[in-house]
Design a protein that fits this description.
8-stranded mixed beta sheet, 37% strand, Acyl_CoA_acyltransferase, 8 strands, alpha+beta
Length: 182
Amino acid sequence: MEVFLHKICGQPVQPPVSMQLRRCTPEQAPAVYALQNEVRAAMPDPEQFVPDTLENITAYVRNDLCIGAWQGSRLGGYLIVRFCGRSAHNYAAFMDVPRTEWEHWANADSAIVHADFRGNGLQRLMLEAALPLFPKKITHIGATVSPQNQYSLHNALASGFAIVSRREMYGGHDRYLLAKEL
């Protein structure tokens, strides 16, 4: 899916810059991992985002879904969606959803956009690109966001997510749990 960005580094650009939103391959997992680490290192409070390992990212790309925002060979953003089924990793487990319903939930596990490309709605656009690739049985999406990460929280709410609760997750990190019905 081709999208057009109207801002680069927060400044308007004319003509708009083209990016391709497409499913990442396992061979691209190192680029996803590198972008995660680059963006996290530049955050004012890196604790707002709990990073993943290259091994886990490779498994998610291979077994779940990762949409990348590509400008040529440069990865400018990504969204990882996990289909956890009845695993305890399913965010539905933390929202009092009956275990029999967990297989109908997906986790919007992480969304990263490089600072150069922010302000273009890429998180929302990547989610829109991912939705047609979901298994038919998925009816809800769960997500977590740090209460201090106002940019990601705003994007999630603008994408139709609602805050369900606030709790400690990921080894003691304060998080909102969000849900979206498809």
